[in-house]
Amino acid sequence: MADLPPDESAFNESPPFAGLNLFTSDRALRDAVARGGASWAVADLKTFGDVAGSETAVDLRRRANAQPPRLRNFDALGRRVDRVDYDPAYHELMAISVAQGLHCSTWEHLLRGGAARPGAHVARAAGSYMATQMEPGHCCPITMTHASVAALRYAPALAKDWLPGILSRRYDPAAAEAKNAVTLGMGMTERQGGTDVRANTTRAEPFGDGVYRVTGQKWFLSAPMSDAFLVLAQSTGGLSCFLVSRLTENGELNGLRLIRLKDKLGNRSNASAEVEFENAQGLLVGEEGRGIPTIIDMVTLTRLDCAVSSAGLMRQALARAIHHARYRSVSQRLLIDQPVMARVLAEMALDVEAATVLAFRLARAFDGGEREDEAAYRRLMTPVTKYWVCKIAANLVYEAMECMGGNGYVEEGGFPLLYREVPVNAIWEGSGNVMCLDVLRVLEREPETLRLVLDDIAAIGGAEPRIKAMLDQIETLRNEVMRDPGMSRMFVEQLALAQAAALLLAHAPRAVSDAFIPMRLAGPARSTYGAGVARFDARAIVDRAGPDR
Ligand SMILES: Cc1cc2nc3c(=O)[nH]c(=O)nc-3n(C[C@H](O)[C@H](O)[C@H](O)COP(=O)(O)OP(=O)(O)OC[C@H]3O[C@@H](n4cnc5c(N)ncnc54)[C@H](O)[C@@H]3O)c2cc1C
Question: Strands 184-187 and 228-235, how do they pair?
Answer without folding.
Answer: parallel
